[in-house]
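Exercise 7.
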Amino acid sequence: MLRWYYLRLWCVVELGFALCCCWVVLMNPVSCRSGGVSSSPQRVLSSSAVAVVSSFSAPSPSPSSSSEIQECPLDFAALDKFSYVAQQAGDEAISTTQRCLAMYDGLAILMSEYLKETSFFLVPAEMADACLQEYDTQLAKQGSTGVNFSEMCGFSASYIARGTDNCQHIQTLQDFLRPLSVSILGAVNNSCNGVLGSGNSRSILCPVCIKEMFSMTAALQLHANGSTTIGCFNYTTLYVGAFVQPSGPLDPSAAVCLWNILPEQVENVKNRNLMVVHLVTGAIVVVVLSMGAAVVIFFLYRRRSIAKQTAYVKQTTQMVGDSMRAAGDFAMVWYSLEEIKAATHNFATETFVGSGAYANVYRGCLEDGTDIAVKRFKNCTPAGDADFVREVEALASARHRNLVSLRGCCIETVGYGVQGHQRIIVCDFMENGSLHDFLFSSSNAHESSCTKPSLDWATRQKIAIDMARGIDYLHHGAQPQILHRDIKSSNVLLDSYFNARVADFGLAKFTPDGITHMTTRAAGTPGYIAPEYALYGQLTERSDVYSFGVVLLELISGRKALIPAVPADADAAGGGAGGFSLIADWAWSLVKAGNWVQVLDPRMNYESADLEDLERFVMVALLCAHPQVAYRPPTITSARRILEDGQQVPMLPDRPLPLTVNRQTIISAAAAASSVSGRGSSSSNLWSSSAAAEGFQSQATISSVGSSYMAR
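Solution. The predicted structure, written as tokens, is:
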């Protein structure tokens, strides 16, 4: 009887759903066909759209003069199926940048279709002006009246005129294919020859396709056939839309991935609102009917949850597999959870090494006797999967002797619930632990002896150069560029020969080619974060340079990044009693007073070392950790060359006063405002023509706020 009761109850629920759906369709058929998509959706700026702006904004020669403007060969009628372009172009409620990006994307689709038909990337020079005029006319037909693409966005006809050098003098399809290898073409064809989007969303194949397109762009930029490479990614996008996508660039699934252009939108706001009313009413009816089926839903809930969690595992495994294939010849080992438990004695306490924000680290030993480091992620949910995949992708794509190398990973689901998800990364074990362990293994490493032996100057010099080489590879050797965002002494590991390796890529950011900076939510460890990144979220290469400078000061001085401000150090370090001061402010106060030797760790054996080398390392550390971004070395490569080759250190500019200074410190700083300490050239700063000798008054900028903010 109970079974028949549940069956009849389920039939009632199904009948209620069917009646509600029929009611919504009959009451508002137009809205239902539209799918309920807003006529002005929030535009998401894709990497491909940015590439379009970059390539079309590149300086180009003017088109050849012609006595009369000929008819444009582009098929502007194709934009009728993409009313999203005209809607965005005429929407005055959004920024001009968003409007211009929409118009750039619409023109890119037409150029890709033209490439498919003619094998030319650009239109004849004498037709370029006509194309822009007809483009404005087409937008006006679709409702964007009064929009002038050239005037609003600064777009010249020369940018699409044949003969313009946007990328390595490429004009035709043959020019494009000539420098590309069979393997690169095959990888793009395999990744992008499929459904890249559905409706207003991208498919899981889209990010894989975009990643392979970056690899193809890098191959084009390495082909030394011309002086301009900024438009190569745009050419790659046009090629994929024209010749790799089976249905061509006009297919909505290709447009939503390659150019972030959504399909045709609903323009009738009244119908849209009416549809919402009917949907809400239908939802209320469904909820009322569903209350009677609570028992059935309870029994189905557990089975659905298990299936959903299993899907998370499958999706993460696929994403990791895609990252491995993109890494090339790297062969990753897939470990089972039983192997990991056996290696770590079921994650025993005695194998625990350390803990971070996202994972715990254990020491393990495989059956063949190999020591491994096991990083077990804590947040084993879809959000945790993102951190896990990002670190696996960074470790797989960055292979360098001064970076921690990836051996494999483990992805499994055991039992039921979130605790059953296991996301584990397996890396080589570093016998000497982290740099933080050697410098601060006791409660007060600077005052008392550490539990580990002190590092001599030769070893510290080697560690500093190894750190710089590892970061340099992330910035300029990896493709795409990787910004670490969390460089600190605990993320610098030492092997048995004290070779330093940069580790922990859980916060790493990938930056596409041509992107010099980005704005994102600040992340990292207080004391190591650059002020402009902490305050405004502005992330650049120099943000990692700042963190490197702080770690270098820790390595040289044996002090932590945040120094407790005691009364004896209050005047020297500029900190208030009971607070903290930055190690860079403390070191600068000594260097400015001519006592740079006091910055050195007294436990370090440097009597036989070259004092010029010691002083150069101190000055480079202060220069890298300067609170004002303009005064830092432009790249980590510049700092590395000074450390390795003994190049001359540029003049050190003065630092802004921290907000926690006392009255005596302000008086002393004002009296010495015109003096600038430091070694190097007295004539100019290598990186800033206006940075060498600014006074105390001009130094009271927002950078001091950031410096003091991170010290609190």
